[in-house]
Design brief:
heterodimer; A: Rossmann fold; B: about 325 residues; about 65% helix
């Protein structure tokens, strides 16, 4: 019965290409040039000013004084998706919001990455039960996701770790030392 | 200055000056992006850029290289020529505006008798670029941002010109070198001492003319996603940013020349005083950006038409009367 009551069917997309950010290889495909630009991209990941639910509050905490993300060059929250590099999908993706999320993703210029933050964006989280009618079970049903950050909501440190994971995807290896290595 | 009067040496001087000004604009943008983000960090009690390079000094370089490698995106139904002409038009006219600025006693690229008229005439090109960017990108936010940019820029140009005109009355010259030369060496003999109101009006209008917070209505993030440069990605956006910082530097140099004694300073005159004063004004602009909230648009126009314009006219009138009685 619940199937018939859908207010909005989620848009059907072709199977997305699982590449990190790129839609097609760069014009000048040389290793040193690619590495140079990849380091620059990894060091200035500008997120979209875009929050869906309570996880967005933790995203704000991540950018503020205590867990300052600007230390790693990722504090420039661009309101226009044309100028941003990484989309943090923070929170519950409802079926009503789904077309907007897809459109925002499609509007971003090519080297782009998506981080699904919070249990709702990863898998539906607490909304993942039978006869659920309003929530998309994970944003990876809509757009290709590069990094998953679980938590309900995750700590701001986990958000930063997600950004580091994106940097790891771009560069092939981890750039910053791990927290345990600094302590020991 | 007619075209037939330009000699070969004059032409070489102009070309060298243009190259130096381009270098100054680029270096200034890199330094100011770093200073702005670091200043924002310090004002909000956080470190700011810290990990990319020592103390994060490589952050603006990295950002610009990233923007260089970004996909250049052209939305459908845009005016293709104007869409790409607008960032170039925002950037290159600023080049001309730096030529009449007296950086030092001899360090002036173009010694024209009406330097301030040249600056004020070409300053409108930045506004035109914003308008074209908003119009050409076929975006409702772009159009709204362009409309705001034009109404704000046109409104604030009037008190700005009237405030500068008071100083021109007092000096009796529109030549920027002569205005700098007419002021003394110590702060109490600069124009800020006898024209404090004009200085204040100019300080408010220069923030509004360069579209900086608290007057950054044309790109107000909360209501228009990014204003006139909503649709620009990669280098188009970077050129708009470069032009914004170059405009800030220009108005700071004009402020230093008109009100803060130009290249004259305590102990030893020279170009270093021009740069110190101009960058002090730049730091002031950055400081108030991270301190004040953004004004509403009706408040913005009310400040201009109800306060700044009558005050600047009054200031001009008082200056004229005093000059008539006392003599220049």
């Amino acid at each position: 019965m619940a199937e018939k009551n859908l207010a909005l069917t989620p848009p059907k997309l072709p199977e997305p290409a699982r590449t990190t950010g790129w839609l097609k290889p760069p014009l000048i495909n040389l290793r040193p040039v690619n590495f140079f630009f990849d380091v620059n991209r990894a060091m200035s990941l500008w997120p979209v000013t875009f929050g869906l639910a309570c996880c967005a509050i933790e995203m704000m905490a991540m950018s503020m004084a205590r867990w300052d993300i600007s230390r790693f060059g990722a504090e420039v929250f661009r309101p226009s998706v044309r100028q941003s590099d990484v989309m943090l999908v923070t929170g519950t993706v409802t079926k009503k919001m789904a077309p907007t999320v897809v459109r925002l993703y499609e509007q971003m210029p090519a080297p782009k990455w998506v981080v699904a933050v919070g249990n709702c964006a990863v898998s539906g989280g607490p909304f993942n039960f039978a006869e659920q009618y309003g929530v998309v079970m994970g944003v990876d049903k809509l757009i290709p996701v590069d990094v998953y950050v679980p938590g309900c909501p995750p700590r701001p440190e986990a958000y930063q770790e997600g950004i580091f994971k994106v940097q790891e995807l771009i560069l092939g290896s981890r750039w910053w030392p791990k927290a345990e290595e600094i302590v020991s | 200055m007619e075209l037939s009067n330009i000699s070969v040496t004059g032409l070489i001087v102009l070309i060298v000056a243009c190259l130096l000004v381009i270098a100054l604009m680029v270096v200034n943008a890199i330094v100011m992006v770093y200073a702005e983000r670091k200043g924002a960090g310090f004002i909000q009690r956080r470190p700011g850029p810290y990990e990319v390079g020592p103390w994060g000094i490589l952050q603006p370089v990295v950002d610009s290289m990233k923007l260089l490698g970004k996909q250049i995106f052209v939305p459908s139904n845009v005016d293709f020529f104007l869409f790409f002409a607008a960032p170039v038009l925002a950037f290159f006219p600023v080049l001309i505006l730096f030529l009449p600025i007296p950086f030092g006693p001899v360090l002036t690229a173009l010694k024209v008798p009406d330097g301030i008229v040249l600056i004020l005439a070409f300053a409108g090109f930045g506004l035109l670029a914003n308008l074209l960017a908003g119009y050409a990108s076929n975006n409702k936010y772009g159009i709204l941002g362009a409309g705001r940019a034009v109404s704000q820029g046109v409104a604030y140009e009037i008190p700005m010109i009237l405030a500068l005109l008071a100083v021109v009355f007092q000096t009796g010259s529109m030549n920027l070198s002569e205005i700098a030369e007419a002021q003394g060496r110590w702060p109490w003999s600069w124009n800020i001492a006898c024209q404090p109101l004009a200085f204040f009006i100019y300080l408010v209008t220069l923030v509004a003319e360069t579209n900086r917070a608290p007057f950054d209505l044309p790109e107000g993030e909360s209501e228009l996603t990014a204003g006139f440069h909503t649709e620009y990605s990669g280098m188009g956006f970077a050129l708009f940013f470069l032009a914004e910082y170059a405009n800030m530097l220009l108005v700071s140099f004009v402020c230093a020349t008109f009100f803060l004694g130009g290249y004259k300073g305590p102990f030893l005159d020279g170009f270093w005083w021009t740069f110190i004063k101009a960058y002090a004004v730049m730091c002031f602009i950055v400081w108030i950006r991270w301190t004040f909230p953004r004004v509403r648009f009706d408040q913005l126009l009310n400040i201009n038409w109800k306060w700044l314009l009558p005050l600047s006219i009054l200031n001009l009138w008082v200056t004229a009367v005093v000059l008539k009685i006392v003599g220049p």
